[in-house]
Amino acid sequence: MSLFAALAKPDICGAIGSENGLAHSDKYKDWFNEYVAHKYTGFLTAEDCCLFRCSLLHQGSSQHPKSGYSRVIFVEPSTTTYVFHCNIMNDALNIDVCIFCNDIIEGARAWLQKYEETELYKKNYGKSMSRYPNGLAPYIVGVPVIG
User: Fold this and answer.
1) Percent helix, strand and coil across the chain, each to the nearest 5
2) Which of 71, 76, 19 is nearest to 44 (CA)?
3) pTM of the complete model
4) Tens of pLDDT along 68-102?
5) How far, CA to CA in Å, does 21 sit from each of 77, 102, 123?
6) 89 in a structural domain
7) How far is CA 118 from the centre of its chain?
8) How many domains does the chain fold into?
9) pLDDT tens across 11-61, in order?
10) Within 10 Å of residue 100's Cβ, how many Cβ atoms?
11) In a domain, 82, yes or no
12) Does 81 map to a domain?
């Protein structure tokens, strides 16, 4: 689940920071290039990350026919003391899922510091999924609601 959330975060940030408040692959790639790509130079481009996001979130696959790699692979966390990160194995890209998720989180924090006080952020963040501990009138009141 962390990987799904990490791959969706550039979309969310790109949408919140945009005029129309909508996600788009160009916004995704721009965000990745600005906040994360420098950690993956020579291994993971914004284009490949965006394609991986599409294949994983929409097809449940680590393989996208337009990617520069046949697939993206991860060593399952806590199964070894070795770290496998930023490796190309034959035609597959291997990255460490924990490092990748943390890199996205760090990028999101940097993005938030830059955009949190902007009018676009304030306008679009209000449309984001939120928890309402006492309900969300006029729909449901008196119980916590997420919406």
Assistant:
1) 45, 10, 40
2) 71
3) 0.90
4) 999 999 999 989 999 999 999 999 999 999 999 99
5) 35, 25, 8
6) no
7) 21
8) 1
9) 999 999 999 999 999 999 999 999 999 999 999 999 999 999 999 999 999
10) 23
11) no
12) no
Q: Which amino acid is at 98?
A: C
The whole-angstrom separation of Cα 7 and Cα 136 is 29
Nearest Cα neighbor of 52 from 34, 35, 72 is 72
Residue 117, domain member (yes or no): yes
DSSP H helices in the chain: 2-16, 25-35, 46-59, 97-115, 119-125
The pLDDT of 98-122, averaged and rounded, is 96
| Contact yes or no for 100/6 (Cβ under 8 A) | yes
Which residues are within 8 A (CB) of 42 and not within 5 positions of it... i.e. 6 or more apart? 86
